[in-house]
Sequence to fold (253 residues):
Amino acid sequence: MADSKPVEPEASASAPKAEIPKSAAKNAKPVRPPNPVWKMMGLPNMRLKLPSRNWSIFLTITGTITGLIVYDKREQRRVQKKWSKLVEHLAKEPLDPKSMPRKLTVFLEAPPTDGLRIAQDHFKDYVKPVLVSSGLDWDFIQGRKEGDVRAELAEKIRKERLLSSHEIEEDDPVLAARLTNGSKLYEGPLGDIVIGRNTWKEYVRGLHEGWLGPVTEPPKPEVPVEAAEPAAEPEVIETLPGITVHSSTDDVP
Fold:
């Protein structure tokens, strides 16, 4: 005979029923009263909550701009520190009391359609801290318009060529007195610092004109001025006593 499956006893009616959860209103925590300190200070009740849409846009934009500025300043200081550390050994080198110190030449020119202040700020932010760490002196050649750097550099090179050939004497009284007393010029490369693409073009043209051109500055071409024709004076006609009529050739009869 096949074993019959045991019949499971039905759940008795006396079994305890599942408890019904209480309503959300009863389980909700009571709202904490605001901090009385804010009320005493005259401030509204401040609670932590997510900002609204407009505040989110405002905080995102201002936070992004502030982060970019902070990042730029931090990287600028890092780069300045890096290059200043590479040249700080020059400031510790001993100097010969009978020799002139090394002096660099910095070339600046105003960018096209802009002022010279932009190039000066660039030098102050990125170049000057490195030069100060190196302990070197420098001279400025600044051009406020196109062609100033080229002309001044070419004139400086022509003067050096004339001094080396003893055709002229040094016109700087301080430098002439030092050379007379036995002081020597710095032996070695001095160095030029050119800031800006437009300044670099002027620098190359000045080198070409100074070293490959004539020793004396070529005369500037004279612009012919056409003689202006004298204006025709109006004819004076005497009519009656006390009455004068001025006639002109431009009058239409």
